[in-house]
Design a protein that fits this description.
heterodimer; A: alpha/beta; FAD/NAD(P)-binding domain; D-Amino Acid Oxidase, Chain A, domain 2; 8-stranded mixed β-sheet; 11 helices; 18 strands; 24% strand; globular; B: mainly beta; Folate-binding fold; 4-stranded antiparallel β-sheet; two-stranded antiparallel ribbon; 6 strands
């Protein structure tokens, strides 16, 4: 593992600390005098490092670049508003139950970082380590999950069997899937490390902490195309606010990665799909774990507000739309009601979708590209859980021009010899 | 949900079809002239445009015909003149 020696605390601006004391002081002052969480500065025309996409991965990368590598001449530019992309369009599940030796340590690290992130960023992420239960209804899936359990145990991730009686005790509304049903429940697994947290807070917390180191964040700055210099390396970008030059450019734009790389003739093995989820109206607390039903293709949890958050399969065919298709919605509802019949009286509150890109092997890409100075972090199918480790390793790669131990398997050259990391732990794929 | 017109059966709901991904250029007639990296590119790369893409669909719940349509990935509009291919 890399050793970082940069004394980051000296470089900090004076961030206002959030605490019970500061809250009490500001309350006495009618909440006047809170500073903005991050600054809005004039856009310069040159930076050392330009990160495209102010979402989870982009902001985390900026934060770790400043914190561990002392690089603060960094701008994060964002087409829309900060945290308005896929970090606002997921089901907030943080877990590490993956299959491959390459993937598990990466997600285990991510979970470790998430666990202490509220303290580190001085920002309440409402982190709740509530565990995830897989409800298994077919034998092929049971075999696959048991195999996953064995490889997870090698890497210190937690996965254990639950008998059906215990499963029903832990999830009282799970009344379907009995012996006479279409797919009786045959087993279940508990992943105790799994957690949920407030998705917006992850973006806001990283943004505030990165800003504190001097990183600039520019919203409403849409990149129209990338620019290559005469020597073939990356030179800058053209945005709606003019040209910005940078020696290094990092893409963290989720489903739109190929949209940008196409502008410099770089083809990447990524296809973009729409993955959707929806929530019910808020109800009283009745579900204190994340429930995953891989055989039915649906997963759900209850948010702190009481809404039942339900995610299902992705759309068929490539798509950059963010609405849910009626048949996808109906399939997810049907699957949910098979196991949770009492949920049929819940009303739909809202739905959302995100444009996600995926590589042929369903494993992410954190890599240099053929164009010197251009880095990509893409292929995040379920990238919310990966934000801290993704940012940490991407920052390491950008700063040092070499891979972090954890992202070494996730580079683009794995495709040169078709060394796929076929990952069955990727959500809904 | 899309309504896709099968060249043989006529307009049907999307749920009757499977998607075969975007159409690719045909493989080279003589594979000997291809380098390894060209083969890898052929296998892993696929068009991913923001806009119209030519893609393969199979009417799996009907006549099982594979055919090509051009669909916009942003609006989901199916553009006219589908060509059929019986591969």
């Amino acid at each position: 593992m890399a050793k970082y020696s940069y004394d980051h605390d000296k470089a900090r601006l004076s961030m206002q600390k959030y605490s019970l004391f500061s809250l009490a002081c500001k309350t006495l002052n009618n909440h006047q005098g809170w500073r903005q969480a991050w600054r809005t500065l004039p856009l310069k025309n040159e930076y050392e490092i330009l990160i495209i996409g102010a979402g989870g991965h982009g902001l985390a990368t900026a934060y770790y670049l400043a914190k561990y590598h002392g690089i603060t001449d960094v701008a994060v530019i964002e087409k829309g508003w900060l945290g308005g992309g896929n970090i606002a369009r997921n089901t907030v599940t943080i877990r590490s139950n993956y299959m491959r030796d390459e993937s598990i340590p990466f997600y285990v690290k991510s979970l470790e970082l998430y666990e202490q992130l509220s303290q580190e960023l001085n920002y309440n992420l409402m982190y709740s380590k509530r565990g995830m239960i897989d409800v298994i209804q077919t034998y092929p899936k049971l075999r696959e999950i048991k195999r996953r359990m064995l490889s997870m145990h090698l890497h210190g991730s937690t996965y254990k069997s639950l008998d059906i009686e215990e499963l029903r005790r832990q999830i009282p509304p799970l009344t379907g899937g009995g012996p006479d049903s279409r797919l009786p429940i045959i087993s279940s697994m508990l992943h105790t490390d799994a957690a949920v947290c407030r998705h917006d807070a992850v973006a806001w917390g990283y943004a505030r902490a990165a800003d504190d180191y001097g990183v600039e964040i520019h919203q409403n700055t849409a990149v129209q195309r990338l620019l290559k210099g005469a020597d073939g390396s990356i030179e800058g970008v053209i945005t709606n606010r003019g040209k910005i030059r940078a020696k290094k450019i990092a893409l963290a734009v989720s489903g739109h990665t190929t949209t940008l790389t196409d502008t410099v003739g770089l083809q990447l093995p990524l296809r973009t799909f729409n993955l959707t989820a929806f929530v019910s109206e808020p109800v009283k607390p009745l579900l204190d774990v994340i429930v995953n039903c891989p055989d039915l293709g649906v997963y759900l949890n209850q948010s702190d507000k009481g809404e039942i958050v339900i995610g299902g399969a992705s759309d068929v065919g490539q798509s950059f739309r963010r609405d849910i298709k009626q048949d996808v919605f109906e399939d997810s509802v049907r699957a949910t009601l098979e196991l949770f019949p009492s949920f049929k009286r819940l009303k739909l509150l809202r739905q959302w979708g995100g444009a996600l890109d995926i590589a042929p092997d369903a494993t992410p890409i954190i890599s240099k590209t053929k164009i010197p100075g251009l880095f990509v972090s893409a292929g995040w199918w379920g990238g919310f859980k990966a934000i801290p480790a993704g940012g940490l390793t991407f920052a390491h790669l950008i700063a040092n021009n070499e891979n972090h131990l954890l992202n070494e398997p996730f580079t683009l050259d794995r495709f040169d010899h078709l060394n796929f990391i076929l990952e069955s732990g990727t959500t809904a794929h | 949900m899309l309504e896709i017109t099968c060249p043989f059966c006529g307009p049907r709901s999307e749920t009757e079809y499977i998607n075969g991904g975007p159409s690719k250029v045909n493989r080279a007639e003589s594979p000997d002239g291809f380098t390894d990296s060209e083969w890898v590119d052929y296998l892993i790369l696929a068009p991913n445009p923001l806009g119209p893409v030519k893609e393969e669909w199979c009417h799996i719940m009907g006549c099982s015909l594979w055919f090509t349509i051009t669909r916009d990935t942003v609006t989901h509009e199916i553009l006219p003149s589908p060509e059929t291919s019986n591969e």
